[in-house]
């Protein structure tokens, strides 16, 4: 996945480098560091056209991606940042996992696409979902183990990003879309991130793809995270979300109903762009 000649692949850069630059970052006046999703990813896309430099193709929620370093290095980095009165925020993904699940109706038995095809059209809830399968050799690639069970995913194909039901049930650019309305999935994600709070003493989360996750998920997840952090002596744990939209009525839903502390100000962002 390393190809510094292409903007679509890894260029290098890791926790060791970030640790080395901590004095410089402190000198800039930085008080908080929001790091890329840190967990182990599928390193290269299905078609081999890009790498997971961004961290959003997670297959192991308990291991730091080897491109970036080790769990031990991450723990040391956070301790060093805290010594300098800097907070560390994780960028986390609960909407989807790496693209591993395939569908009998639009993939070959080996998991590849038929010649000339890329992607699986979205099937709405008026029809049966696709028939999922996992290609040979990928059956246990995800951690924790329950993430390898296709029944915890929607399996309805690629989201057309039209703002309809596919917002919650479609695969985000083909990534395996978790059933975030399922109480088991909600508790499973709470368990994962309580581990990172307890073991690594992080200060908060930036939540990816907030609009693509059921509101019921956030209503349980956010309070549970704050309560757990407080039980660990972290009194000001802060959770902010990425809800990519300019409508204040929608953005405010995730703080008023979804229990998030804040959302990124895309209203201002898009107004400036306009």
Describe this structure in words.
Helices cover 30% and strands 14% of the residues. It contains eight helices and eleven strands. It has a five-stranded parallel β-sheet, covered by helices on one side. α5 packs parallel to α6. The relative contact order is 0.11.
Major sheet: arrangement of strands: 1-4-9-10-11
Shape: globular
Give Rg in angstroms.
19 Å
Continuous helix count: 8
Amount of beta strand: 5-15%
Gap between N and C termini: 36 Å
Helix content: 25-40%
Low-confidence stretches: none
Class from secondary-structure proportions: alpha/beta
Give the topology string: H per helix, E per strand. HHEEEHEEEEHEHEHEHEH
Average pLDDT, rounded to a whole number, is: 95
Largest sheet: 5 strands, parallel
Give the strand tally. Answer: 11
In short:
With 274 residues, this protein is an alpha/beta fold.
Write the layout of secondary structure elements.
Blueprint: H1 15-20, H2 22-27, E1 32-35, E2 39-41, E3 58-64, H3 71-83, E4 87-92, E5 96-97, E6 102-103, E7 132-133, H4 166-169, E8 176-177, H5 183-200, E9 204-207, H6 215-231, E10 238-241, H7 248-256, E11 262-263, H8 266-273
């Amino acid at each position: 996945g390393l190809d510094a000649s292409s903007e679509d692949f890894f260029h290098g850069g890791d926790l060791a480098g970030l640790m080395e630059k901590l004095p410089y970052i402190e000198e800039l006046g930085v008080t908080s560091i929001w790091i890329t999703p840190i967990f182990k990813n599928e390193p290269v896309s299905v078609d081999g056209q890009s790498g997971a430099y961004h961290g959003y193709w997670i297959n192991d929620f308990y291991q730091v991606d080897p491109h970036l370093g080790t769990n031990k290095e991450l723990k040391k980095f956070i301790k060093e940042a805290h010594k300098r009165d800097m907070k560390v925020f994780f960028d986390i993904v609960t909407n989807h996992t790496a693209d591993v699940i395939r569908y009998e109706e639009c993939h070959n038995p080996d998991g590849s696409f038929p010649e000339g095809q890329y992607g699986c059209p979205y099937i709405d809830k008026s029809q049966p979902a696709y028939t999922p399968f996992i290609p040979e050799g990928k059956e246990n690639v995800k951690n924790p183990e329950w993430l390898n069970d296709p029944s915890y995913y929607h399996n309805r194909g690629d989201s057309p990003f039209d703002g309809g039901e596919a917002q919650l049930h479609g695969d985000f650019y083909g990534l395996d879309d978790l059933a975030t309305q399922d109480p088991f999935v909600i508790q499973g994600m709470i368990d994962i991130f309580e581990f990172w709070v307890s073991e690594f003493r992080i200060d908060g989360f930036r939540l990816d793809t907030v609009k693509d996750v059921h509101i019921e998920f956030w209503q349980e997840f956010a309070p549970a995270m704050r309560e757990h952090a407080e039980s660990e002596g972290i009194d000001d744990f802060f959770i902010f979300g990425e809800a990519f939209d300019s409508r204040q009525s929608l953005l405010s839903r995730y703080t008023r109903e979804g229990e998030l502390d804040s959302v990124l100000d895309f209203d201002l962002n898009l107004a400036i762009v306009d």
